[in-house]
Specification:
Residues 23-143 form the Schlafen AlbA-2 domain. This protein has helices at residues 4-12, 37-53, 70-73, 83-92; strands at 27-30, 57-61, 94-95, 101-107, 112-119, 127-128, 134-137, 140-143. It is of the alpha+beta class and 148 residues long. The chain has one domain (4-142): Methyltransferase, Cobalt-precorrin-4 Transmethylase, Domain 2 (2-Layer Sandwich), CATH 3.30.950.30. The strands form three sheets. Strands 1-2-5-4 form a four-stranded mixed sheet. Strand 1, helix 2 and strand 2 (57-61) form a beta-alpha-beta unit. Helix 2 (37-53) crosses helix 4 (83-92). The two termini are 26 Å apart.
Length: 148
């Protein structure tokens, strides 16, 4: 899992790199879909399960992929998105329940808001409430196969 300082250092490098260059076992970047809050929540649920099963990690929402130049990369997340509601939705839609923590990062004099979802590893395996399980392996979320 990355702390705010580490993530801010990575973001400063996005003038010359794409976000994907920094994705790893414990870090992913996702663009926010401004036309579908439900799609964003479903993505958070999916990545909470993936990261929890893969040892924990951070997902930064509001960052465009495969784009260089910090002005093009930092798309942001709407200011009216309620962190408590996001935590509640992830909790309700994971089994066993995952309680992510969210942190806000602000750029350009607080005109751009990014959300960092941190997920701790506790007692995998985790699934969505519909039974889907993935696990983080490198930069990917792959189907989880419980070998016990």
């Amino acid at each position: 899992m990355k702390n705010k300082s580490e993530i801010m250092t990575i973001i400063q490098q996005l003038d010359y790199h794409i976000a994907d260059d920094f994705e790893a076992q414990d870090l992913d970047f996702k663009q926010w879909n401004f036309s579908s809050e439900e799609e964003n929540i479903n993505k958070m649920i999916k990545y909470a399960v993936c990261m929890a099963n893969g040892g924990g990690g951070s997902v930064v929402f509001g960052v465009a992929d495969k784009v260089r130049g910090i002005d093009n990369v930092l798309i942001g997340v709407p200011f009216d998105v309620d962190i408590k509601e996001l935590e509640k939705r992830v909790f309700e839609n994971t089994d066993p329940h995952i309680i992510p923590s969210f942190e806000e990062l602000f750029y350009k004099d607080h005109s751009i808001r990014l959300l960092v979802m941190n997920v701790l590893p506790e007692t995998p395996p985790y699934t969505t409430t519909n039974g889907t399980a993935t696990i983080r392996q490198g930069k990917e979320c792959l189907p989880y196969r419980n070998n016990s």
